Amino acid sequence: QVQLVESGGGLVQAGGSLRLSCAFSGRPFNLYNMGWFRQTPGKEREFVAAVRWSDPTTNYADSVKGRFTISRNNAKNTVYLQMNSLKPDDTAVYYCAAKSRVRSGNQWDYWGQGTQVTVSS
Fold first, then answer.
1. Kind and range of the H or E element at 7?
2. Which helix (H) or strand (E) holds 98?
């Protein structure tokens, strides 16, 4: 069974930076594409960024392009989200997710427990 454990959330001032980490275990890491999502109370969970299992192909939500960077270290079974120029609107619980590399569509297979990011103005 895959387990995902996020860390690195916290409180930061607007314009600051945070780096989130997600430790993956339970299956071979390179079988999965990885993503980050976020959710605020009363809203749907929204896509933030994703990275493929094998190559540096990434994609981002328009709201974070140019400010956030997703990366993965297959030797450490970890995916990261570097968040720069943070805005109060980035405040949310951030979730790490894994999707089998053979799965098509928007269904993600596994989710972490989430880490809170709060950006003060």
1. strand 3-7
2. strand 92-100
pLDDT digits (tens, 9 = 90+) for 21-30: 999 999 999 9
Q: What is the identity of the amino acid at 84?
A: N
pLDDT, position 51: 96
Name the H helices within the chain: none
Under 8 Å between Cβ of 20 and 4: no
54-89 per-position pLDDT tens digit: 877 999 999 999 999 999 999 999 999 999 999 999
Confirm if 21 and 29 have CB atoms less than 8 A apart.
Answer: no
The answer to whether 57 and 66 have CB atoms below 8 angstroms apart is: no
CB neighbour list of residue 65: distance below 8 Å, 6 or more residues apart: none
Maximum CA pair distance of the chain?
A: 42
Supply 53's token pair.
């299992």
Residue 87's alpha-carbon distances to 79, 102, 119, in angstroms, are: 22, 35, 6
